[in-house]
């Protein structure tokens, strides 16, 4: 029986992180109105959410600022225009991709910034560069996370070596990331056990970021928190790349800590998320995402299938199998 399955109790160390603007921004090239972002910020405060991720810290030399909304670059002045001095309990997070962030130039000292946490996203083969980023950002005074991506395709020995390397840095949180939405809860349980062995050895906290290709994002998150994972990613109405993420409204309804309140989440979805859908933003479980999840493939082909408005699911499945 999982610890969290004691439904009358909760674990005080659990924290919830909202990824709506960052993962959800992949749906609409980060074009969120200031009204949307301000309302999301206030909804997170009212709901008791612990962290709000404002987007990516993308390198302006690599990405054309005219082709994306401001959350692609998460400049401090943009964040301040929404949160002011952020005199609240809600912490601000930003994701920094290895190889796509000029962290030495674009990330100032923590004392000069409204950001509390940077989440360094990396592939296993980029681990030396990730270590350099983590250490640089830590030394500037920020909380740090390491999100090792595409682990469902990694060799067990390589993943173990990567975990040992990152756990010996000053990183605060190591994330289990189901990038392709291909995992089931029993697999998640084994993975958490492996991560937890390393995390406990070096005194690190664990987090989870799940995708919903198999409609398992919430189930995997519930499994992980029951096994001792403390930082839980979710988004409003599951808004995120492709099949989306663990829905915030499901997660807060599941957690029993009285600090969390699902009602502001429901209000925000009604007032703002549904408007995005009506304007053409598309995400969430569908057959094409199921297929890439089952085949343990990156969802890029399913995303393109969706953009093209295709409905020939059987043909698409054959394309994936041949490719696989």
- Biggest beta sheet attributes: 8 strands, parallel, barrel
SSE class: alpha/beta
Order of helices and strands: EHHEHEHEHEHEHEHEHHHHH
CATH architecture of the largest domain: Alpha-Beta Barrel
Global outline: globular
Bin the strand percentage. 5-15%
- Average pLDDT, rounded to a whole number, is 96
What does this structure look like?
With 324 residues, the chain is an alpha/beta fold. It has two domains: 3-278, Alpha-Beta Barrel (TIM Barrel), CATH 3.20.20; 287-323, no CATH class. It has 13 helices and eight strands. Strands 1-2-3-4-5-6-7-8 form an eight-stranded parallel β-barrel, surrounded by four helices. α6 (156-167) links the parallel β5 and β6 (173-178). α11 packs antiparallel against α12 and α11 (287-294) runs parallel beside α13 (313-323). The mean pLDDT is 96.
């Amino acid at each position: 029986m999982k610890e969290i399955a004691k439904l009358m109790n909760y674990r005080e160390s659990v924290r919830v992180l909202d990824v709506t603007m960052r993962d959800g921004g992949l749906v609409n090239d980060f074009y969120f109105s200031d009204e949307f972002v301000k309302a999301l910020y206030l909804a997170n405060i009212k709901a008791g959410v612990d962290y709000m991720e404002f987007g990516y810290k993308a390198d302006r030399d690599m990405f054309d600022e005219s082709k994306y909304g401001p959350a692609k670059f998460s400049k401090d002045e943009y964040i301040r225009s929404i949160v002011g001095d952020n005199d609240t309990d809600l912490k601000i997070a930003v994701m920094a991709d290895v190889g796509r962030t000029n962290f030495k130039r674009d990330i100032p000292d923590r004392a000069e910034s409204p950001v509390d946490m940077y989440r360094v996203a990396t592939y296993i083969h980029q681990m030396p560069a990730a270590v350099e980023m983590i250490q640089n950002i830590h030394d500037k005074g920020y909380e740090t996370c390491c999100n090792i991506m595409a682990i469902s395709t990694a060799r067990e020995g390589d993943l173990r070596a990567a975990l040992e390397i990152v756990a010996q840095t000053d990183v605060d949180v190591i994330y289990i990331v189901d990038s392709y939405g291909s995992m089931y809860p029993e697999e998640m349980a084994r993975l958490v056990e492996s991560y937890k062995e390393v995390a406990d050895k070096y005194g690190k906290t664990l987090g989870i970021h799940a995708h919903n290709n198999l409609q398992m994002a919430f189930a995997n998150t519930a499994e992980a928190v029951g096994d001792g994972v403390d930082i839980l990613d979710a988004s409003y109405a599951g808004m995120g790349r492709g099949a989306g993420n663990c829905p915030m409204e499901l997660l807060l309804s599941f957690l029993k800590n009285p600090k969390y309140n699902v009602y502001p989440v429901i209000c925000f979805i009604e007032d703002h998320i549904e408007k995005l859908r009506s304007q053409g933003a598309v995400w969430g479980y569908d057959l094409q995402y199921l297929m890439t999840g089952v085949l343990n493939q990156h969802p890029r082909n399913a995303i393109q299938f969706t953009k093209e408005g295709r409905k020939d699911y059987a043909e698409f499945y054959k394309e994936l199998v041949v490719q696989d």
